[in-house]
Every structure is written in structure tokens, then in C-alpha cells.
């Protein structure tokens, strides 16, 4: 279902055929005693055992995608490319917005989908040009809303705690329900 122009948040209107804004989030899980399980769940980023989810919001700021749970070791790229429902829902001419960690530009380009993300400075130069800095700020000011939605999801008390090992088989369903329940809360920005 396409969004009507009235449904789209003002911050996303300049971005053409924007279908989804993506970001990953991690939940702390209890350390497994099994070494193979720990290899999959240990997150170098969080320095803890975690499960990771890819979350997407539509241009009207509603959660419209939640991936299955992945071990904290999985990269944003790996999760995105292996999220079949998301990838199959993208069509030629669509636009996706994400943070710098989503290194899927080439893969999306192959199916005719544009990836919008803040600029990379790289190591070989000291700073952005004025145009790059302004463009990055513009994209970041729109992309920030996915982070605000994820913070809302994580306010559900079950998700604020370290997930016990005996709950790991249902954490995926619980996170999914919490994510979609945020669609019934007050909007994160005024229209």
C-alpha cells in the first residue's frame, strides 16, 4: 500500500519514493554456557551477548518491518540481505534510508533500489566538504526518527531487562508485538 502525500511526514517528503527507513537494535541476553551459542550472540559493539533485530518504519512513521532475531554477531548488512520479506518487498525505483553501517548500496542498486545514507568521510581526509556536511545533516535529521521509534519499542519493561536463556525462544515474538504496539501510541512528531 502506497502512502498518500498527506500521510508522509514532512521530513521524508524530499526523499522521493522512500519505502522504508532501517536501523538495527540489540537486546541484552543472558550469557550462554554453550560456546557455539556464545560465538553467535556476543556483540563486539555492545561487549555483551545480545540478540539483534532489523526494524523499519514507513514514511508515515509507523513500524512496517521487523526482522527475525539474529545473534548479536550478525552484521547489519547480513541481516538486511537475509531479510527476505523486506528484500522481496522492494521494487525498482524504491528508496531506502539507513545509517552508515548498512553497506548494502551495491546489492540494492542491482535491484534498482536507491540507498540514502549520511556521507562517509573516510580516513584519507580530515573533514567533509560544506556540501557533504549539509547533506549528511539533512539525511540524519530525517533518519533520527527510526532511532526514536526503536527507543519507544525498548521502553516495554520486558525488553529493558537482560533476557533470560529460558525466554530466548519467544523473544522474537515479544519484540515483534512490542514493535507493532508502538504504532498505536501518539506520533513521535507533530504534523
Written account of the structure:
The longest helix is centred in the last third of the chain and has 24 residues, at 130-153. The chain has helices at 35-41, 76-81, 84-89, 105-110, 130-153, 157-160, 171-181, and strands spanning 18-28, 42-43, 48-57, 63-66, 70-71, 95-97, 114-116. Strands 1, 2, 3, 4, 5, 6 and 7 form a 7-stranded mixed sheet that branches. The chain is built from 7 helices and 7 strands. Helix 5 (130-153) crosses helix 7. The model has no long low-confidence stretch (mean pLDDT 88). The chain has 191 residues and is α/β, with parallel strands linked by helices. Helix content is 34%, strand content 18%.
In short:
The chain has 191 residues and is α/β, with parallel strands linked by helices. The protein is built from 7 helices and 7 strands; from the N terminus they run E-H-E-E-E-E-H-H-E-H-E-H-H-H. It is globular and about 50 Å long.
Binned strand content: 15-25%
What about the largest sheet?
A: 7 strands, mixed
Q: Helical percent range?
A: 25-40%
Give, in order, the helices and strands.
EHEEEEHHEHEHHH
Mean pLDDT: 88
Taking all Cα atoms into account, the compactness measure Rg is 17 Å
Shape: globular
**Quantity of strands, as a count:** 7
Amino acid at each position: 500500500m502506497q502512502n498518500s502525500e498527506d500521510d508522509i511526514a514532512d521530513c521524508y517528503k524530499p526523499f522521493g519514493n522512500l519505502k522504508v527507513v532501517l536501523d538495527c537494535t540489540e537486546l541484552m541476553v543472558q550469557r550462554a554456557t554453550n560456546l557455539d551459542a556464545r560465538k553467535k550472540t556476543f556483540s563486539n559493539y555492545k561487549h555483551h551477548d545480545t540478540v539483534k533485530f532489523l526494524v523499519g518504519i514507513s514514511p508515515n512513521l509507523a513500524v512496517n518491518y521487523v526482522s527475525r532475531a539474529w545473534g548479536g554477531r550478525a552484521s547489519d548488512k547480513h541481516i538486511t540481505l537475509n531479510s527476505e520479506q523486506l528484500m522481496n518487498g522492494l521494487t525498482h525505483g524504491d528508496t531506502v534510508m539507513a545509517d552508515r553501517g548498512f553497506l548494502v548500496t551495491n546489492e540494492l542498486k542491482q535491484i534498482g533500489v536507491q540507498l540514502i545514507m549520511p556521507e562517509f568521510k573516510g580516513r584519507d581526509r580530515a573533514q567533509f566538504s560544506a556540501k557533504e556536511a549539509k547533506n549528511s545533516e539533512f539525511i540524519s535529521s530525517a533518519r533520527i526518527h527510526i532511532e526514536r521509534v526503536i527507543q519507544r519499542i525498548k521502553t516495554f519493561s520486558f525488553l529493558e531487562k537482560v533476557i533470560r536463556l529460558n525466554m530466548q525462544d519467544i523473544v522474537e515474538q515479544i519484540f515483534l508485538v512490542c514493535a507493532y504496539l508502538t504504532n498505536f501510541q501518539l506520533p513521535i512528531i507533530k504534523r
